[in-house]
Task: structure prediction
Amino acid sequence: MDKRKKKGRLLFVHIFALVSLSMMVFKSFVAAQEYNRFRTFHFSNNSSDNRHPRFSGGIYSVWGDAGEQLWLVYDSKLDSGNTEIFTSVRFRDENFWRDPLRLTDNVFRDEYPVVKHVNENTIVVWQTNRRDNFDLMFSVFDGNNWKEPEFITDSKSDDIHPELLVHQIYEYPQTDTVVVILVWERDQKLYWNQYSEAGWNLPKAVTNDSTNQTNPFLFGFENTISMAWERNKYGNVDIFGSWLDSETNEWVVPIQLTESEFEDRNPSLVQGYQEMGLIWQSNRDGDFDLYSRGWRQDKDSILLSDPVSLTENDSSDVDAYTLLIPHG
Result:
């Protein structure tokens, strides 16, 4: 079967329940290995707070001459008070992680990094206050060296919490296109731009709405790029979603994906059978639990399935994370 016509089958939804989110020190990563074996890898053993770990994609998601590889980035609050970006890589044919490499070295705060593969390169984006307020910077690894970091944004407002998506659009029989999209928060609104060989485009607002928009989550499946985020529009926090119109290269008018008088937060998207799956946390039952629902487009309308509770206990279950792994 032509791989362009294959559809990824959802193998599992991996849920991380993090009860305490403040000042977390990243200690280890548990990765699912072949034959359902699990191993724990220890990345750091120092007195610094190593935080906000992000991986480059699914487990061993890159194919190339160097073998499949998985990248990790995180920020480390050093004893000197500044925060720096570190990265490490593991190749599938090696049973170890390479020593962490320090990407930044200054007296400022470089934090909240994200990492993705772009063709044969690896790109890292993070926020920094090198120019008093927070802007976004990036660096590219070309397979041999990391390039000098460059600024992406130059705003008087703080540009924070970047989210990065690299997705392959199939244009059969034409050459497939790799789309690189960056979304972030500025003045509690969402902005985005795209990356190409010529560099980054100028930032644009995702919507014209002035209500609070935070915590975006990007997801690509086949030829569709979708996004979900938190939005405080009616006095409480709900989840809204949109997708990128391939003809206009603009985000369509957002749709409301949750509707309650409680707090619906931390959205995550995954592709299910003939519909998009949304997972989020909500305190509608007194404490935070995880919920899911499906949504799909039917002509000019959006059909939403009823919310389903994924967890029911007296603890707070938060920060759901979903992962789609193509099989076959």
About this structure: The chain is about 0% helix and 50% strand.
